[in-house]
């Protein structure tokens, strides 16, 4: 074989290999597309199955074999004459050995749904709960109701573990509380459950805060994924999942993870009619925000109890320090505090020694203080679910309470910079839509997010937009602003400068370096209004956020959106606003719902809270 023959054959093989590689790539892409389509089909089927599920009327009967006993226990042990909304349906379904997902607002009475059946059946039910502190609170309550209950965990002494195991095997416990970590990592406990199961005395698994299973949820916990083994290891044992918050997507994922596709799903309305929802502007000057907190705590909320949520442990410590300097009885609460310190703070808050705790989301799950009159989010929460659940710690006594969100775009950008996937980005975007809306009922926005069915009339003037409707809302054309911002970003990029929100506003309002400013005069509207316009353009995805990294933190830079063609807008980008914006043209158009519009065709909120045009001091 001479060299030319060798080269020709070698090239022939190369061509065949390249051809096959190209075919392989096409096949792999096709396979990926088909798999995605298959999963999307399954998701859509599951979503439609949930949305079109039958009503709960079949579970409301009072002629089950256990019905008389259920009502007797309700009166004798729990001292109630009647059930609250959906409790009876959930109890009948779980006593019928059905898997059940119960979504009921905070304070709606979820605990009774597993506590009462535990007395009826007399066998062992396992309650899986995320926090030891929450378990301890529940055990204290159960003793009042005459329910034999215990917990076993990493803090339990060896003798205590043996005693509890013996009680479980002898059927002397109705409820055994564990954390998901204990379930996943303790073989001896699983062996005990297997023995009880084989003896046909394992009644049900109750998974508290079941939304923690789902990565769609706001409080995903990896240890909850280990609960996927329950159906395989203990077939026939029903699962009762409990949560205060779950979107339809979260419900679908819970069903998939726990292998309960035919679970009876019972949802109570999310509406908490006694909670007043509002969003106020958190000004750039920190002292203004501190002034606001001082005034409302010393005046409007004097002698009342509440929670102030902050984003980080550092924020909690610093805010608590500043408020203490102003003679306010507050304390920080976060996961990094020692157990005894957290318990001491919790106790002092519970007995009203402390007016408020300054807390991360580590504080609140399972908190059952009925007289919380205010929940203030000092920084923007990361999702609407988080906002709803954390606000839900107020007003459990049924009396009116305030849920205030202090919004600024800088806090939101910090949250966005810390997102790790598209799901988290979507959650952060949803809260932005809620915060910068100008007129829509807050309850209506929350209900839409949870696929619930509320009308603005259900609000009864219990949100800022319904209580103080603004008849002066105008529709402005902000396309010139988008052009200016795109030009500013391009100018900075040419000089290898990244624009944070502050730098962008500085350059737009002629406060930054001269070589990063556009020619002409600065905008006639205020800097605060300029920040609102940037938020609106981000909300509509006409601008984007790009992450940057320093040695100590992740940064958020304002950037263009490459997929946006400004020529396609025909000279108009319409934005509603609640006060006069000098220098921008007003569009005299028929009333339209701008909230429905978006560049992607999805329904997105777009405009600012009425109160964003006001200083914080006016809200006191």
From TrEMBL:
This is ATP-dependent DNA helicase. Its main location: nucleus. Residues 3-44 form a coiled coil. Keywords: ATP-binding, Coiled coil, DNA-binding, Helicase, Hydrolase, Isomerase, Metal-binding, Nucleotide-binding, Nucleus. One of its GO terms (cellular component) is chromosome. It comes from Ceutorhynchus assimilis. It catalyses: ATP + H2O = ADP + phosphate + H(+); Couples ATP hydrolysis with the unwinding of duplex DNA by translocating in the 3'-5' direction. Residues 289-440 form the Helicase C-terminal domain.
């Amino acid at each position: 074989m001479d060299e030319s023959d060798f080269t020709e054959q070698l090239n022939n093989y190369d061509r065949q290999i390249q051809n096959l590689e190209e075919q392989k790539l096409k096949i792999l892409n096709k396979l990926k597309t088909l798999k995605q389509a298959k999963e999307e089909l399954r998701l859509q089927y599951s979503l439609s199955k949930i949305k079109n599920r039958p009503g709960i009327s079949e579970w409301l009967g009072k002629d089950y074999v256990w019905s008389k006993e259920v009502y007797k226990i309700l009166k004798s042990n729990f001292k109630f004459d009647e059930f609250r909304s959906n409790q009876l349906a959930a109890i009948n379904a779980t006593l019928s050995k059905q898997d059940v997902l119960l979504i009921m607002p905070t304070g709606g009475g979820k605990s009774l749904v597993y506590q009462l059946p535990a007395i009826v059946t007399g066998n062992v039910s396992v309650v899986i709960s995320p926090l030891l502190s929450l378990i301890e609170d529940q055990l204290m309550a159960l003793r009042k109701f005459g329910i034999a209950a215990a917990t076993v965990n990493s803090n339990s002494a060896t003798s205590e573990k043996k005693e509890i195991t013996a009680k479980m095997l002898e059927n002397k416990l109705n409820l055994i509380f564990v954390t998901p970590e204990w379930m996943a990592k303790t073989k001896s406990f699983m062996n005990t459950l297997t023995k009880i199961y084989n003896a046909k005395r394992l009644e049900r698994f109750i998974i508290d805060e079941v939304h923690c299973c789902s990565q769609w949820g706001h409080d995903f916990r990896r240890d909850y994924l280990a609960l996927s083994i329950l159906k395989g290891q203990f077939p026939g044992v029903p699962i009762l999942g409990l949560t205060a918050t779950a979107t339809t997507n979260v419900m679908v994922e819970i069903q998939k993870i726990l292998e309960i596709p035919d679970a009876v799903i019972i949802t109570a309305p999310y509406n908490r009619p006694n909670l007043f929802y509002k969003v106020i502007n958190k000004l750039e000057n920190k002292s203004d925000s501190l002034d606001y907190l001082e005034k409302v705590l010393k005046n409007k909320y004097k002698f009342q109890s509440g929670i102030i949520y902050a984003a980080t442990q550092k924020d909690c410590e610093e805010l608590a320090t500043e408020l203490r300097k102003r003679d306010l009885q507050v304390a920080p609460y976060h996961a990094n505090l020692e157990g005894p310190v957290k318990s001491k703070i919790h106790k002092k808050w519970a007995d009203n020694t402390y007016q408020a705790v300054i807390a991360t989301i580590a504080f609140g799950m399972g908190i059952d203080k009925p007289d919380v009159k205010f929940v203030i989010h000092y920084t923007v929460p990361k999702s609407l679910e988080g906002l709803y659940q954390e606000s839900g710690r107020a007003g459990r006594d049924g009396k009116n309470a305030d849920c205030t969100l202090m919004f600024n775009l800088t806090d939101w950008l910090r949250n966005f910079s810390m997102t790790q996937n598209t799901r988290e980005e979507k959650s952060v975007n949803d809260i932005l839509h809620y915060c910068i809306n100008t007129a829509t009922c807050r309850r209506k926005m929350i209900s839409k997010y949870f696929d619930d069915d509320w009308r603005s009339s259900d609000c009864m003037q219990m949100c800022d937009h319904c209580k103080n409707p603004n008849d002066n809302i105008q529709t402005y054309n902000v396309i010139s602003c988008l052009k200016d911002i795109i030009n500013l970003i391009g100018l900075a990029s040419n000089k290898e400068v990244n624009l944070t929100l502050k730098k962008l506003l500085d350059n737009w309002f002629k406060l930054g370096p001269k070589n990063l400013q556009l020619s002409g005069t600065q905008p006639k509207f205020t800097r605060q209004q300029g920040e609102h316009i940037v938020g609106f353009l981000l909300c509509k995805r006409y601008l984007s956020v790009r992450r940057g990294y320093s040695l100590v933190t992740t940064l958020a830079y304002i950037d263009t959106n490459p997929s946006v063609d400004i020529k396609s807008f025909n000279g108009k980008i319409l934005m509603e606003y609640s006060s006069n914006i000098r220098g921008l043209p007003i569009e005299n158009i028929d009333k339209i719902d701008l909230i429905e519009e978006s560049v992607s065709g999805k329904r997105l909120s777009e405009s600012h809270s009425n109160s964003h045009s006001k200083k914080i001091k006016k809200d006191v």
